[in-house]
Amino acid sequence: MALYLLRRLGFIFLTLLLASIIIFSITQFLPGDVAQMVLGQFATEVAIENLREELGLNLPLHIQYLNWAAGFITGDWGDSLVSRMPVQPMVMQRLGNSAMLAGVAIMIYVPLGIALGVIAALKRDRYPDQAITAVSMAFVGLPEFVTGLLLIAIFAIGLGWLPANSSIDPGSNFVQAFPYLILPAITVSLTGLGYIARMTRSGTIDVLDTDYIRAAELKGLPAAQVLLRHVLRNALLPTVTVVAMGIGWLLGGLIVTETVFGYPGLGRLLVYGIQRRDLPLIQAGSMIVVAVYSLSNLAADIIYGLLNPRIRLGR
Amino acid sequence: MAKDNRGNSKPSSPFSFLKKLRRYPATAIGFIIVFLFILIAIIGPSIAPYPYTEQKLSERLAPPSEEHIFGTDQYGRDIFSRILVGSRDVLLVAGSGTAMAVMLGLLLGLFSGYRGGLLDEIVMRLMDVILSIPPLLLAMVILFSLGPSRLNVIIVVGFLYIPMVARVVRSVVLDLKTRQFVEAARMRGEKSGYILFREIFPNVLPHLAVEASMRFSYAIFLVASLGFLGLGVQPPSPDWGLMVGEARTWFHQARWILLFPAGAIALLVVGVGFMSDGLRRMLLPGGVSDV
């Protein structure tokens, strides 16, 4: 187990290293002059030269990368080109806000998606299944800005129950933020719900078709016991992986959802950074997103291994 | 799973295809929606009642009426015309991006899977790294560098989805490579090129078709999201996502300028999703439902 963990951590480190090179290369030296790009075409020569100096653009590329990477690891993520404030506290604060939103969303869509998936599997190919499958497929396909704006139209503007705008103070705690989290969380959940429901359905159907479930039924166990002790234990295993694999997509969903509601999370910050051409902010924010994504994949593998004794980690 | 003798992997006649459609109403609806949108994309621009950029400030934010059945937007442009013209945009951008990803992913997956060894290992690790960055984020960062334009959005979609396609193709190739008909071809002394394209490729096709249709629905999703964020296709293009993004400020006064483009996106994405799911059931019966 320890060896396995070590190997996985090493692999994650390698992934992050390569991803950082990709992100750095894309943002730093793809098209012509970065300073020109950041400042726009009407910038003066002097301003461009100053920025080049500040960003270290006159150094060779690999030195630039090493400087940036070393800074990133030691917590010096540079200053925002727009606000002139250090990037790190800003990114971490917004990351916390995104985590709050993602947490509420996961609490909604994971249990609900599992329940719907199990119901669909038990009523396979009958009316409830077809309804659940069609609706979940529709939700999976709807972009978050469509569902988000629809929810605003109904619950904020139409009924007036919830705020349409979630642009709260970025430093708010969970209790203060909660009313503003509901609509964005439901928006993210609708996409995730369909995804989890579909995966749970196919996992449950696979288990229902096995001999040991037939044996359990035939020896006269109560249906509820078969379902809880025998079916779900096995069927929910893949769902763990699915939830974690969905994190990457969840992060994308958060970018759009936070923009729809103006919620001060990391996704909104990244969009803002790109609109303002705030290079250090984009680089640091992207790296954090990639790191979160990799770590959640690792967490999924570990949980899966712990829950499933058939898999021997480390081999 | 692919069939083990070649040329036997497609529904045999149009009738069996139609029969299957009847068993899955959602799939039939999906095919019809996609067909209608393709039709609109072809004839839409010529039947649009107004030019899509024509501004009439006197008629701005007009609710749906007989002259403007979907109403007008903040510049007095006819929303119905913009949606008609925009359908060509959406299908073209998402479609060519998907086509690019499918072609490149296919080649990469075929060669990498067939060759195996170190080349395969390197290619696949590289794909893993690209996959370790969430697609929307990677798209945003690339467009930040390339600058937002229609061509660049196509390039981004085409690049982003290569790893997914390559992975699927590779896994099918790995499975086929050990089958007897491939062994037999090798025994006959056929060249690798022949084996790859005449023996293996036809059996990869059904998987590729399903994968392509899935990528297409994701591509529409992605292009619309980029448009909405203002990082994709730029104004005054009638991109639906962009229309929704621009309409947001006017939402409280004029709901229609948002509802119609959003509805168009929703309908198309759901249609392609249903179609893709149906293709999977028809072309890969009993196949594992990989994500």
Can you offer a commentary on this structure?
The complex is a heterodimer of chains A (315) and B (291). Chain A is mainly α and 315 residues long. Chain A has helices spanning 2-29, 34-39, 45-55, 61-73, 87-122, 127-141, 144-158, 174-208, 211-218, 223-261, 266-275, 279-307. Chain A is built from twelve helices and no strands. In chain A, helix 5 (87-122) packs parallel to helix 8 (174-208). Chain B has 291 residues and is mainly α. Chain B has eleven helices and no strands. In chain B, helix 5 runs antiparallel to helix 6. Classes of the chains: A mainly alpha (315), B mainly alpha (291). Chains A and B meet through helix 1, helix 6, helix 7, helix 8 and helix 10 of A and helix 4, helix 5, helix 9, helix 10 and helix 11 of B.
Short description:
The complex is a heterodimer of chains A (315) and B (291). Chain A is globular and about 85 Å long. Chain A is built from twelve helices and no strands.
Please render the helix and strand layout as text.
The complex is a heterodimer of chains A (315) and B (291).
Chain A lengths: L1 H28 L4 H6 L5 H11 L5 H13 L13 H36 L4 H15 L2 H15 L15 H35 L2 H8 L4 H39 L4 H10 L3 H29 L8
Helix pairs in contact in A: 1-12, 5-6, 5-8, 5-10, 5-12, 6-8, 7-8, 7-10, 8-10, 9-10, 10-11, 10-12, 11-12
Chain B lengths: L13 H10 L1 H23 L31 H37 L1 H15 L3 H12 L3 H11 L1 H16 L2 H8 L4 H38 L10 H8 L8 H28 L8
Helix pairs in contact in B: 2-3, 2-11, 3-4, 3-6, 3-7, 3-9, 4-7, 5-6, 7-9, 8-9, 9-10, 9-11, 10-11
Count, helices of chain B: 11
Please tell me the total number of domains of chain A. Answer: 2
How many runs of DSSP E, i.e. beta strands of chain A?
0
What is the helical fraction of chain A, as a range of percent?
over 70%
Distance linking N and C termini of chain B? 15 Å
Question: What is the arithmetic mean of pLDDT of chain A?
Answer: 80
- Name of the CATH superfamily of the largest domain in chain A: MetI-like
Contiguous low-pLDDT stretches of chain B (5 residues minimum) are: 1-11
What is the class of the largest domain in chain A in the CATH system?
Mainly Alpha
CATH architecture identity of chain B: Orthogonal Bundle
What sort of overall outline of chain B do the alpha carbons produce when their principal axes are compared? elongated
Structural class by sheet pairing and helices of chain A? mainly alpha
CATH fold category name of chain B: MetI-like fold
Reported for the largest beta sheet of chain A, the result is: none
CATH homologous superfamily placement of chain B: MetI-like
